[in-house]
Amino acid sequence: MLAGTVVGCAGSTTTAEPAATASCGPVTASLGGTDVDPLDPAPTPALPVTVTSADGVPTTVTDASRILPVNMYGSIAEIVFSLGLGGNVVGRDTSTTFAAAAHLPVVTPAGHDLSAEAVLDLNPSVILADDSIGPPEALKQMRDSGIPVVLVDAEQTLAGVPAHIRAVAAALGVAPAGERLVTRVEGEIAEATRGVPQGEAPRIAFLYLRGTAGVYLIGGEGAGSDAMIEAAGGVDAGTAIGLAKFRPLTSEGLINAAPDVILVMSSGLASVGGVDGLLKLPGVGQTPAGEARRIIDMDDGVLLTFGTRSGRVVQALARAVHACGATS
């Protein structure tokens, strides 16, 4: 699937059979739906519970009726809703974009920084976060005001998803439901990775683009994108040339990475003017991916989330790689 003749069509999604061509500009990796799948029946929190926050602070949660889940990736909110407690959530971060949460007020108007005023206005009974959200002073202010703040680890890997689910479930007093959800999610991830056909793996470069802010980065080892690329049967091009986390995009670096496919977030692609604008960035047009317009885009709210929909994300990305092809 990943090393055959290039197929694809401009502006296609992976739900239709693509026409045979040497370009693909872009293929959208779609989950086929925008919502989460909550446990049924929903659990009833058994409170109070005392847990140790990821920053080492013992924290007692007595009330889960007004939950505020926030982090840079939207994964914590996804877990809370999947546990069946979405009706108790009072606010969201900018990365939480699935349909069930779309009506909630945003408490991170500056991207990934909390607005203390917006949080306090919501009067949450518990805040669930990780160190990807800030500033630290805002979280301290929340704690000082008497709101229980539970931090979870911010590891962005598929292997880390079960631990995140367990940490969130424990903090909300629904540990048994957390185990039910872990079983389901682990099964979906395993099924998705088993379904990725074997063969020569394409080199895939993830580019983080915010054209309106002049931000152009390439992902490497530990960026999170590397884990998704590898799970979908690809080789992370940034990691292959020794990059770690995110690094500024340079013409020399991208040409050396020589990606067969370029992966971007959908809003990032739009921010640079689509595929035509992307090809004008340093080095993009000189790569095998750029020359053949082999571009995959995926919704910002799912690609790097590493939440309960991770199995679906891997499947969608693998389908898109197939539709976009790897070699000519």
UniProtKB/TrEMBL annotation:
<dbReference type="Pfam" id="PF01497">
    <property type="entry name" value="Peripla_BP_2"/>
</dbReference>
<feature type="domain" description="Fe/B12 periplasmic-binding">
    <location>
        <begin position="68"/>
        <end position="325"/>
    </location>
</feature>
<dbReference type="InterPro" id="IPR050902">
    <property type="entry name" value="ABC_Transporter_SBP"/>
</dbReference>
<dbReference type="InterPro" id="IPR002491">
    <property type="entry name" value="ABC_transptr_periplasmic_BD"/>
</dbReference>
<comment type="similarity">
    <text>Belongs to the bacterial solute-binding protein 8 family.</text>
</comment>
<protein>
    <submittedName>
        <fullName>ABC transporter substrate-binding protein</fullName>
    </submittedName>
</protein>
